[in-house]
Design a protein that fits this description.
The protein is an alpha/beta fold and 232 residues long. The chain has 13 helices and seven strands. It folds into two domains: 2-147, Rossmann fold, CATH 3.40.50; 153-231, Helicase, Ruva Protein, domain 3, CATH 1.10.8.
């Protein structure tokens, strides 16, 4: 916010390399939600793009798509540009993929280099669930890295309290928090959603502890099955 307000001063002193943030952390930990909250807080439009969505089956088009996204952000300035699934392209730098994909990666990194919060009024955010796939060339383009870890037991309890606040529920969120180790905030919302829907199928709106326990058990079973299918 302060950098946007003082763009002219920063331009005068030649300080351009700011305003590029990398969000890292497991899925469902709030990376995209934080970007949207920043957009709302600063009343800025946000251009949100998933790299997998602009990677064209016609490989030569991918570089053009990347240029179009950055051009759009500059036209909407001041704005926020969120690049989700940042590792999708960055990891191909070390692979043996088609040469056009590597050219697209270079186009992306060059576009990141050339866009500036100070010069263009674009706050650049990139998000990845797999930071270990990024090489140094990708990391060094960001002036700040923000880690989004999975919530601990206390934070899980607070998230559950928040999600359940508008629901008629008689539950022990301390117990539920202890039973959901490794769950993200998004996972917890899904657990509550399933409990609500199951209760509605039984023509009731009030939730009890058993409703949430069953939902947690069902969620855990699905995760186990999913991991098993991947391993197979």
């Amino acid at each position: 916010g302060k950098a946007l307000q003082n763009r002219e001063y920063l331009r005068q002193i030649g300080l351009y390399e700011i305003g590029k943030l990398l969000f890292i952390g497991p899925p469902g930990t709030g990376k995209t939600s934080t970007a949207r909250a920043l957009s709302s807080w600063f009343s800025l439009p946000m251009v949100e793009v998933r790299l997998s969505m602009i990677t064209s089956q016609y490989l030569g088009e991918t570089s053009k798509n990347i240029d179009k996204v950055f051009d759009l952000a500059k036209r909407l300035s001041p704005c926020i540009l969120l690049i989700d699934e940042f590792d999708f392209v960055a990891k191909t730098r070390t692979s043996d993929e088609h040469g056009a994909i590597k050219r697209a990666v270079n186009t992306l990194l060059k576009a990141i280099d050339e866009i500036s919060l100070v010069e263009h009024g674009v706050l650049l955010l990139a998000a990845t669930n797999h930071p270990q796939l990024l090489d140094y060339a990708a990391w060094r383009r960001f002036d700040k890295v923000l880690n989004f870890p999975l919530p601990d037991a206390e934070m899980r309890r607070r998230i559950l309290d928040k999600v359940l606040s508008l629901i008629d529920a008689d539950v022990d969120t301390y117990e539920l928090a202890e039973l959901t180790d490794g769950y993200s905030g998004s996972d917890l919302r899904l657990v509550v959603r399933e409990a609500v829907l199951n209760a509605l199928l039984e023509d009731r709106r009030k939730l009890g502890q058993d409703d949430l326990l069953r939902s947690i058990e069902e969620f855990g079973r699905r995760i186990t099955e999913y991991k098993g299918s991947i391993a197979a």
